[in-house]
Design goal:
Chain lengths: 678, 532
């Protein structure tokens, strides 16, 4: 079987799963739905492996395979085919997506067991995987846009999964709107590019990019790329289009794990990596990407320090980590960014799963302030969280250590202004270590809270009545808001299996790319980045790598130590968990307020966009109303209609006059315009 | 030249006008059959014959597809552009006839008359899309409009319906008058009535900046904008859509749009192509206004028909973009869009009609729980809304993509941005409808009404005197009359058929748009004189 044939099967399997589950969602109540959902994605993973093996059997020069089924749209010389592109880059993405998805489906089989929307959940989840695969496998821009739009829709459906929950539906809408802004950018950008290249096909576009846009690129290329990047930033939650991601944590935890950590949010990184032959021609676009990535990683890191919602802290961490990837991919660190994308998918999915287990033990409570001392009650979850935390903090030999440092090494190697980014990266790494271990110390260390004690005695806490953790409103469990009972990893083998596998990957994932020693991933990806190798490639020297590895270790350990001093030590001394942190908060009150309010981005968007639009809407509404109801402008302008209107006036008052009057006013305006043309 | 044409009877290419004749013949037959006393004849035979007439006209249009030429001394064009118009109108007509089965309107207006008027109106549209002479175009316009004025008022006992017919008539007359005035000015400037000749004269005599000519163009723009409900000449649209019986609204929304836009293309891209520098920016502005007014206006609507009316204003704006750019690509994009629009709108109105018959009103809330009660309707309406919004994998996405592409290609990038932003706004109200469909069951009271009405039978035997004895009409549509509710007991099969077929088409064409696209390319080639 050729790699492309296998890839088509990979694409179709989750679609079949989604359709089967979608048709059956009303009648199925049992665990079957979970098994069908997991099996379809699991099979997709198997076929991805088939595709990989088949790919490895090919010559390196023949590892980019475009395969098309039929002509999708053929218009004005532009031929859009229903086409997929299988190359090492998409294959790596495919492995990550299907692999992690399978594990998360497996986790959900147990985790979502008590939910009344069980079958619906798996139908959505399978649909998401299908959409994501369309995005990843797209062989041209149009299919990419289709996938891009579909994942947005799937994300909306899954964030709003508990649709009786007001906060969840609002969050869904917010995510959708911001992503539509991104979609607009993507569509316009692609069409701008298309105008110059005359083709939507990826390979053809790249092959002719230099001829079309010149060696240094030109204005239209930069404009097109910047618009495309708006799409990438919206999907990957980069500043200033990031505000939807923390709110998206309203969705069920497996959704946060799959969509908002491991797969969909990294689509922006994948897109920029895919478009690297174009990116390299535009210095402006690259700079914008680097700056946005660097700013995002720092801002998100600082916000993560002070949030108290367990899932939101991880969400900000995701934003921050994707900031590294966006920065890296814009600076030419393609291998490193894809490497980090993969390792991040492992450890971040693991962290979310562990968090889900803790939240279940807390009966849906997500506030860190109310957690504590789960170490003894939930040893497996604790271990998983620690492994994920070490990988995220970049402690050797865990996977995150190698991938993050590799990005920064490539950036540092380029010198000059890149040193600022390099420094930002290590500052971000320090913040990462602090907020990650803050979660661990606060949730697992210290004196056990009531729920933890109960669990130690073998009884899983279930709330008497379910309340929305965000607003305190009583929840309607009819639609399955997390369901009447909860599931923790310690008691669910399926969850254990999924988390265990990811934990192994989080530990040993680094083996995919130990600089200078073991670089199978980089070697495999080479054919996809061939053009980059021709002169743009940056190979960090031995010195900077060693410095980076040492620096990364030190910064990470320092961060953990700081977190220990602030949050773990006081709790163990018996001074109370927040004794030191509240001192710090008082000392840096303005900063704390800034971080706590998420740098006021929501307020800024409200001020700059929402309010003017609302004001305009009100203005338009008032004016139209007054025009129509008051008939202000009607006054005797319409002799022709007046006679006829006498008959009708009894029927509808002034309406008709107004209508005709507006027609005449419009006509007058047009006449004036046309006569001026004459 | 006109004198010449009148003096010598023109050769008539019977095959060429066969699709038009089918509609006229159908109208006559239906009118006669409608006079029969048997209930079977009126209730079953008449709609069946109407469908046959529409289908025959579609079939004949396909038969004449490859012909290229003109009919009746150049009065009508025989080309794929005209034929696709006939086909579009025919499809819309069949959908409207299906929706009319068991509806109140044909019963009150008498079945024969109702269907005959629809067929005559469709014949007018067939003339309108083929017209390549100012006189024929105007004739076609009036022929299509006058039956529609009457059709809008066919729910005789319902005040809203009468009002909407009256409004449509008066504002429509203003539009027609303006158009006629514009035609007169053009004739004055060029001395020609024929599209081709007008274009030639504009070129030869350098009339592109002529005051008389441009004055005429301005008035034509207004007249056409009115028919295609492009803002700010759209005000009649919401009232008429809401007031008219839903099957009639469906026919107006779909068939009229096809006819108006194809006539738009033919007139502006053939006859007036020489003055495109003048009308391009003007039409672009109108299109932008339509997108903004339509999308913003739809936000606050609670009546589904009003919502669709505002949405149709916005959609008209999108479709106009293809005319504005005056390129082959633009013509293709517009034709493609208008055809897909027919499908999406037909699906939406089929579900609206079904819901209206059940609950007696067309509020968005009436849809609550539809997805559970009638999954097929729920899915169809969802697909229609997603399609209109332009979500990928529906045909609406492909259509919108092509319009955007045409705009950017024709150097109207700003218009493309307005379009995309407009679509973003439109998500809000389209998704609101979708959310309502899949939300929970309607309040208990409504459900009870529904189950009761199912048991009521035999709508036709209701004494007509109860209808006539209600001279004031029930206030608005809020309180459904007993008759209207009784009809709800009838089969909803026709509506389900329309909804399912149209819904399936939205997806199938969204995934495999190639064949339709090829057809449309053929069509646009008929418009010579456009930049390729």
């Amino acid at each position: 079987m050729s790699p492309a044939e296998a890839a088509w099967i990979v694409l179709v399997l989750p679609l079949i799963g989604a359709i089967v589950l979608g048709l059956g969602f009303k009648s199925w109540r049992g665990i079957g739905a979970g098994i069908v959902g997991t099996a379809s994605v699991g099979l997709a993973f198997v076929f991805t492996l088939v595709s990989l093996i088949s790919m490895l059997g090919r010559e390196e020069g023949q590892r980019q395979i475009a395969s098309s089924l039929y002509d999708y749209v053929k218009v004005g010389g532009v031929d859009v085919r229903m086409e997929i592109l299988v190359d090492p880059l998409s294959l790596v993405m495919l492995l990550v997506v299907t692999g992690v998805s399978t594990l998360i489906h497996l986790y959900s089989v147990a985790y979502m067991r008590g939910d009344n929307g069980y079958t619906r959940f798996f139908a959505y989840l399978n649909f998401f995987v299908f959409s994501m695969l369309v995005l990843v496998l797209a062989g041209n821009f149009v299919i990419l846009i289709v996938g891009w739009g579909l994942v947005g829709a799937a994300s909306y459906m899954l964030i709003s999964f508990w649709y009786r929950r007001g906060t969840a539906t609002t969050a869904g809408i917010k995510a959708f709107v911001i992503n539509v802004v991104g979609d607009i950018g993507l569509v316009l950008g692609v069409i701008l590019l298309l105008r110059h290249t005359g083709t939507v096909d990826f390979l053809e576009t790249f092959a002719t990019a230099k001829e079309t846009f010149g060696e240094g690129g030109d204005g239209s290329l930069t404009a097109g790329l910047l618009l495309v990047m708006v799409g990438a930033f919206a999907k990957s939650a980069q500043i200033p289009l990031h505000t939807w991601l923390p709110d998206a944590m309203e969705g069920p935890t497996p959704v946060s794990s799959l969509i908002h950590a491991a797969t969909m949010v990294t689509a922006g990184v994948y897109l920029l990596a895919r478009l690297h032959p174009l990116m390299e021609l535009s210095q402006t676009a690259q700079t914008v990407g680097m700056v946005v990535g660097a700013v995002t990683l720092l801002v998100a890191g600082t916000i993560g320090l002070v949030q108290t919602d367990l899932k939101r802290v991880i969400a900000y961490s995701t934003m921050s980590q994707i900031g590294y990837m966006i920065m890296g991919v814009s600076a030419g660190a393609y291998f490193a960014s894809m490497f980090h994308l993969a390792t991040h998918a492992f450890f971040k999915a693991l962290l979310f799963m562990a968090a889900g287990s803790v939240i279940a033990a807390m009966a849906s409570e997500q506030n860190l302030d109310k957690m504590g001392g789960f170490k003894k009650a939930m040893p497996f979850t604790y271990a998983a969280f620690v492994i994920g935390g070490l990988a995220l903090a970049g402690i050797p030999p865990f996977s995150g250590f190698f991938s993050k440092d590799e990005i920064l090494a490539v950036i540092g190697e380029q010198g000059g202004a890149y040193w600022i980014l390099y420094a930002a990266g290590y500052l971000g790494a320090f913040l990462t270590a602090v907020y990650t271990w803050r979660m661990i110390f606060r949730a697992f260390w210290g004196p056990p809270v009531a729920e933890a004690k109960e669990l130690e005695e073998g009884h899983l806490h279930h709330a008497a009545e379910h309340r929305n953790p965000a607003t305190g409103e009583v929840e309607d469990t009819g639609v399955g808001f997390p369901g009447p009972d909860h599931h923790i990893a310690e008691r669910a083998p399926a969850m254990k299996l999924a988390m265990g596998t990811l934990a192994l990957l989080a530990i040993f994932g680094g083996l995919l790319g130990i600089p200078k020693v073991l670089t199978p991933l980089e070697h495999f990806l080479e054919p996809s980045f061939e053009s980059a190798l021709e002169g743009h490639a940056v190979h960090p020297g031995g010195g900077i790598i060693v410095v980076g590895l040492i620096l990364g270790t030190v910064v990470g350990l320092l961060g953990i130590y700081v977190a220990y001093v602030i949050w773990a030590k006081p709790a163990m001394d018996g001074r109370g968990a927040t004794a030191v942190s509240s001192q710090w908060q008082a000392r840096f009150a303005p900063l704390h307020r800034l971080f706590l309010n998420k740098w006021y981005f929501d307020e800024l968007i409200d001020l700059v966009i929402v309010r003017p639009v609302r004001w305009f809407g009100r203005f338009a509404h008032d004016t139209f109303e007054r025009l129509v109801v008051g008939g202000a402008i009607v006054g005797g302008s319409t002799g022709a209609v007046r006679g006829a209107s006498a008959v009708v006036r009894r029927l509808q008052g002034g309406y008709l006059r107004t209508y005709s009057a507006v027609v005449l006013v419009g006509l007058a305006a047009l006449l004036v315009y046309f006569l001026l043309q004459g | 030249m006109i004198a010449l044409a009148a003096a010598k009877a023109p050769d008539i290419d019977w095959a060429g006008i066969s699709s038009l004749l089918a509609l006229f013949a159908g109208a006559v037959v239906v009118l006669m059959v409608g006079l029969l006393r048997a209930r079977f004849a009126r209730q079953t035979l008449v709609p069946a014959l109407s469908i046959v007439a529409f289908a025959a006209s579609i079939g004949l249009a396909i038969w004449q597809w490859d012909e290229q030429g003109s009919l009746m001394s150049g009065a009508l064009a025989l080309d794929p552009l005209a034929m696709i118009g006939v086909i579009g109108v025919g499809v819309a007509g069949i959908a409207a006839v299906l929706l009319s089965i068991g509806a109140t309107a044909p019963r009150e207006a008498a079945h024969g008359e109702y269907h005959a008027m629809m067929l005559v109106s469709a014949a007018g549209m067939a003339m309108f899309v083929g017209g390549q002479n100012l006189i024929t175009t105007f004739l076609g316009l009036e022929l299509l409009s006058i039956p529609l004025y009457v059709l809008a008022a066919t729910e005789l006992h319902r005040r809203r319906s009468l009002e909407s017919g009256m409004k449509y008539l008066i504002v429509g007359s203003v539009g027609s008058a303006t158009l006629l005035y514009g035609f007169a000015l053009i004739f004055g400037a060029t001395g020609e009535l024929d599209y081709g000749a007008i274009a030639r004269e504009v070129g030869e005599q350098g009339l592109a900046n002529d005051v008389l000519m441009l004055g005429g163009v301005a008035m034509i723009v207004v007249g056409f904008a009115f028919k295609a409900s492009v803002a700010p000449f759209h005000q009649w649209t919401p009232d008429v859509y809401e007031g008219a019986p839903t099957p009639v609204t469906a026919f107006m929304a779909t068939a009229t749009k096809v006819a108006a836009l194809i006539a738009f293309i033919r007139l502006f891209d053939v006859a007036l192509i020489g003055t495109s520098d003048a009308w391009g920016p003007a039409l672009a502005t109108l299109a932008a206004i339509a997108m903004i007014v339509g999308n913003v206006g739809a936000l606050g609507q609670s009546s589904l028909k009003r919502l669709l009316a505002f949405s149709s204003v916005a959609q008209a704006g999108y479709m106009l973009v293809g005319v504005v750019v005056a390129t082959q690509l633009g013509a293709q994009a517009t034709v493609f869009y208008v055809l897909t629009y027919v499908v999406m709108t037909a699906a939406a109105f089929a579900v609206v009609e079904a819901a209206e018959r059940e609950t007696g009103h067309d509020g968005v809330e009436a849809l609550a729980g539809l997805g559970r009660r009638k999954p097929l309707h729920g899915v169809a309406l969802t697909l229609a809304m997603l399609g209109l919004a332009g979500v990928p994998a529906t045909v609406g996405f492909v259509a919108k993509l092509r319009i955007v592409q045409a705009a950017v290609d024709g150097d109207y990038t700003w218009l493309a941005i307005v379009l995309v932003v407009g679509s973003m706004i439109s998500f809000v109200y389209y998704l609101r409808v979708v959310a309502q469909v899949w939300a929970d069951e309607a309040p208990a009271g409504e459900a009870v009404v529904r189950t009761q009405t199912v048991e009521v039978e035999a709508p036709e035997t209701l004494p007509t005197s109860t209808v006539a004895a209600d001279p004031k009409g029930t206030p608005a549509a809020a309180v459904p009359s007993a008759a209207a509710l009784a009809v709800a007991g009838g089969s909803q099969l026709p509506m389900t058929i329309v909804a399912v077929v149209a819904g399936a088409a939205i997806v199938v064409l969204g995934v495999v748009p190639g064949p339709l696209m090829t057809v449309v390319e053929d069509v646009a080639r008929a418009v010579s004189g456009l930049v390729a």
